Amino acid sequence: MRFGEFGGRYVPEILIPALEQLERAYNEFKDDEDFRKELNFYLRNYAGRPTPLYFAKNLSRELRMKVYLKREDLLHGGAHKINNTLAQALLAKFMGKERIIAETGAGQHGVATAMASALLGLKCRIYMGALDYERQKMNVFRMKILGAEVVPVESGSRTLKDAINEALRDWAESFETTHYLIGSVVGPHPFPTIVRDFQSVIGLEAKKQILEAEGSLPDAIVACVGGGSNAMGIFYPFLNDKVRLVGVEAGGEGVETGRHSASLTTGSKGVLHGMLSYFLQNEDGMIADTHSIAAGLDYPGVGPEHAFLKDSKRVEYTVATDKEALNAFLKLSKLEGIIPALESAHALAHLERDETLRGATVIVNLSGRGDKDIGIVMEVLK
Amino acid sequence: MISRSLIVFIPAGYPRKEKTVDFMLSANADVIELGIPFSDPIADGALIQKAYFSALSSGFRLRDVFWIAKKFKGESDKKLVLMSYYNPIYRMGVEDFVMGALSAGVDAILVVDLPFDEANEFVDVCRDFGMKNVFLAAPNTGEERLRAMDELSEFLYLVSTYGVTGIRDRVSDLAFKALKRVKKVCKKPVAVGFGISKREHVMELFEAGADGVVVGSAIVKLIEQFGENADKEIEDFTNSLLQKF
Known about the structure:
Chain A is an alpha/beta fold. In chain A, 45% of the residues lie in helices and 19% in strands.
């Protein structure tokens, strides 16, 4: 139920039975042969797994290291999010729920949830901060085309954390018929474990693929961390191996400016969204507003297992600024013909800076593609 | 602490801390429940959310809660329960918070998002300092959990319905069923809250055996409407809640 001291189930009593039901269902179905078979069918034939582990020759020459990209950007929907939404939507069906609710920041998880809901015939409502709703109009429209209802959330800072608040409020009323499909390794137990397990397909594939390509494990794996689902997904199968693991948080305009989302690097312990973890907050425990050029990293907290892996020093956590991420975004596009998501570009940016990686073999989790970010990048370069 | 008691919820610092004390004093209630503003109040509906955001954006600080409590207890012998989310308490440090509350005269603390099985440290500290705890129960809470929180609670706060705080037209059948069940399982008094805003709600619940009834959002609405001048409105409204036929 906890990762060291982190995690837990800090929710109003009314949600406890719903979380207990989810835990029971998950334990029952995670090893169930029919469930696995159906999930694997959809992952392969609908989402496009396995994704390639691509040796980025040009980038490798430029950076003087062997860079492999785990191509989650090639999945249906354009990001790793679909691994989790397909699995949880199936789990919801097994539990007899007929309706799905979810939060979304930039809209990637919302789109992936809307897809899985459409596929499996579930009603779907997505909560989205009103500010995000305005700046991500295309994704709002995508979700609507996919049959989802999208609700802008006007309260608080009108961003991702407020969308989670509103989804939790909905769930407190609707849990009998509704599954809350959380999009990252955050929230009350058992969500961080469930999402990590469903995303660890990324690391399991990568391990097999790198052994085929190199005959040995990589020296390092690098992934961006917002809530932390793509990073947990690729790190988890390597936790017991001699492989350096590096998580890169959003440094925004620089951690010294206060306009960033680096909760592990600069935050403090706290309790929000059902979990004990690291958060950006003031001295009264009020949660701070955050900033990142990558909307998917724009969250004031982080999954509790990352908090544990930081304190136990198994994973190194660092930051990349908006500017560094933007440069990495442009570089990968020019050198490899691959436009990465601005989130994933934070992981790529780390390769530039870390001199200890020269000559090493490195896997970067390319968690999403950058088509969704073209408008933002166009604005910044203007 | 409660027996056929009207419990009135007042959000701290809305519109400012001095007025909070006035509102608490003007309410005709047996117990005052003082709500601590939080940036992310997941169990609260629109009215209380708005009150909290307004308090925070006009500079309300956590330590002001103790100032309000002390002032109030200096002028009233009504019971005072703090209602908070866990993060402000955790951030200040559980010991410091409980000590601060105790020396301000607070009688009990209810933490909305701290279920009893996550509350070991909190309960231990409260016990050490002689502070009382109140835990939330819900219509879907199992018997085993009810028994456990019955042990730890001064009284139980039964949430009347699924969902969040707010004004509702009627008390749901679910609430009456739950009240009957909780009264059967638990030895401690039971207060019912969430969605209760009218005199007939209060009377129905007392009839059905509730030891306390909490009125919250309806009070917040008065403050929203009348601002600095809500004292009289709160007094009249709370009087009307208890008026006999």
